[in-house]
Design goal:
Length: 263
């Protein structure tokens, strides 16, 4: 019987899902923890014919793929494919699939939540109230402000809709603009005009380190930068410097470059 391995269901999303019951009758091995190292990942999937990958921390390098002689398919429970060596997979005859748009609404809502949290200074105000203070913060009203989208895939398009719904002007840049998602502008103009910049590009050799100091230098000192894409697309040191020097107003992040194995 063909073996299917889920090497990284932490926190669990597949095991509690309705889809999991459809695997009844398969030889399924599900790990409720993430691999601690590349060697651990190799050991978990070495006998698998099919792998369902949940977390991008699992790195399917050429070495890993070459060590799995029976592997035929890696199915990604998500959209990003940057954790898989696609060239090696193609050469080895391993099919790679993903689920584009699967969480577009949820991630767009999350991006909007981060924007709101920074604009309303919710974290700082909450901390000060817990310390016994009663802060009177001058917060940013988003209605009438300009939301700039870097990337307009399924998530970017959904955030454009949400942004317009709260009264934002929406401008956008992407590699291949099409449709009337927003007003299309050049990347430098987007950073210059936006009160909020939200990043929605996929990670690729073309985008790693793409957003850097020169872009933050263009931003308004009150502007907010949000990244719910991949940490490696942004030069983290440049972003940190922009925040520490007050070059930009704030940032809402749920990703960083430090999401790989250590050691």
């Amino acid at each position: 019987m063909a073996r299917l391995v889920i090497p990284d269901d932490e926190p669990p999303v597949i095991a509690p899902s309705a889809a999991y019951s459809r695997l009844e009758g398969w030889d399924v091995v599900t790990y409720p923890t993430r691999p601690s190292s590349q060697a651990d990942l190799k050991e978990r999937i070495r006998d698998a014919e099919f792998v369902i990958n949940v977390r991008s921390t699992s790195q399917f390098t050429r070495e890993i793929l070459q060590s799995c002689a029976r592997l035929k398919l890696i199915s990604i429970w998500g959209t990003g494919t940057d954790n898989i060596d696609l060239v090696a997979a193609r050469e080895l005859g391993i099919r790679v699939t993903n689920t584009p748009g699967v969480s577009a609404i949820a991630v767009a809502e999350h991006a909007l939540t981060l924007i709101m949290a920074v604009a309303r200074q919710i974290v700082r105000v909450d901390r000060q109230v817990r310390e016994g203070h009663w802060p009177r913060a001058m917060v940013t009203q988003l209605h009438g402000k300009t939301l700039g989208l870097v990337g307009t895939g399924a998530i970017g398009r959904e955030l454009a809709r949400l942004g317009k719904g709260i009264g934002c002007r929406v401008i956008a840049w992407t590699f291949h603009p099409r449709g009337d998602v927003a007003e299309w502008v050049e990347l430098d103009e987007l950073f210059r005009r936006s009160d909020v910049v939200s990043l929605h590009l996929r990670q690729s050799p073309e985008t790693v380190g793409m957003i850097r100091r020169e872009h933050f230098d263009l931003m308004k000192p009150t502007a907010i930068f949000v990244n719910t894409a991949r940490g490696a697309i942004v030069n983290e040191a440049d972003l940190l410097e922009a925040l520490q020097t007050g070059r930009i107003g704030g940032a809402g992040l749920d990703v960083s470059r430090k999401n790989r194995y250590r050691g």
